[in-house]
Write a structure and sequence with these properties.
With about 280 residues, the protein is of the alpha/beta class. Helix content is about 35%, strand content about 20%. It has an eight-stranded mixed beta sheet, sandwiched between helices. Strand 1 and strand 2 form a beta hairpin.
Length: about 280
């Protein structure tokens, strides 16, 4: 086999030329959903982007209810949570609350700082939910895995070790070293050491919970490898893991099932939330 061309493997916008049309559809559908289901804004920090859009489900029991978090992608350098509001629709239809955080972007911050911001956001959500199921797409899938593998009492002694009960990563990146030599890294500014330090694949595997890693059927070989590798490595360490594919989906359409109450993706997240 020849050497892997990481630029080709990871440049999703080049691989899917219709991506502007697909992302315009996200913005349109998200705006329409927000008009009918206005989110509750939750601040988790001082900056403009330190906000969580909280789409509340109707509580069917006493006390706190589970929350499913969705973290957006964009290679840690683009987009914000408001473009994905419609993805709360599938779970909201089952009365499950969904939280969609936004974070600062590279190059204004580092990937490690974004991880820290998402930890702070989860601490804020802990005030509202009895358990957090963290999902995410692309860079958001990376962040979901990072949050599952976080030592929560080490981050804040008031937090339980199982604050995040499971992660559901869609088209995630868990080993960032292949990105170092690509154009994607211009904004990230990673060297090999920083990339490895920010890669959950090389962290101590979580001691509890579960990881689902799914990838679009039509995505690159590297994206399939990334998800299979973390499922295998963390599974060998004793974590409950699953690998799956989204049929006929590319990198940009792999998240579409979240808007559908009847999709297997929505129903799996509902199950993980204990609903």
């Amino acid at each position: 086999m020849g050497e892997v061309d990481y630029e080709v493997e990871y440049n999703n916008r080049a691989r899917v030329p219709e991506n502007p049309h697909l992302m315009a559809g996200w913005a349109r559908d998200a705006a329409a959903y927000r008009e009918k289901h206005a989110p509750q804004p939750i601040r988790y920090g001082p900056a403009a982007r330190h906000v969580i859009d909280f789409f509340r489900g109707q509580r069917q029991d006493n006390g706190k209810a589970p929350i499913v978090v969705f973290i957006h992608g964009g290679y840690w350098q683009a987009l914000d949570g408001s473009a994905f509001s419609h993805l709360a629709g599938g779970l909201n239809a089952h009365d499950v609350s969904v939280a969609i955080p936004t974070y600062d972007l590279c190059p204004h911050v580092t990937v490690s700082e974004i991880i820290a911001q998402m930890r702070t956001a989860m601490r804020e959500l802990a005030r509202l939910g009895e358990r957090l199921v963290v999902s995410g797409h692309s860079a958001g899938g990376h962040l979901a895995a990072c949050l599952l593998a976080t030592d929560w009492p080490g981050f804040d002694s008031a937090l339980p070790f199982d604050l995040v009960t499971s992660a559901y990563a869609i088209s995630g990146l868990f080993d960032l070293e292949p990105l170092v030599a690509t154009s994607i890294n211009k904004a990230l500014g990673l060297d090999a050491a920083a990339a490895r330090a920010a890669s959950p694949l090389f962290w101590k595997p979580p001691g509890q919970g579960s990881l689902d890693a799914v990838v679009g059927e039509l995505e690159s070989t590297e994206y399939h490898r990334q998800s299979r590798t973390i499922v295998e490595k963390w599974g060998m360490a004793g974590l409950t893991t699953r690998f799956g594919t989204v049929p006929d989906a590319n990198h940009f359409t792999a998240i579409a099932p979240l808007a559908d109450p009847a999709s297997l993706m929505t129903l799996r997240l509902k199950e993980l939330a204990g609903r």
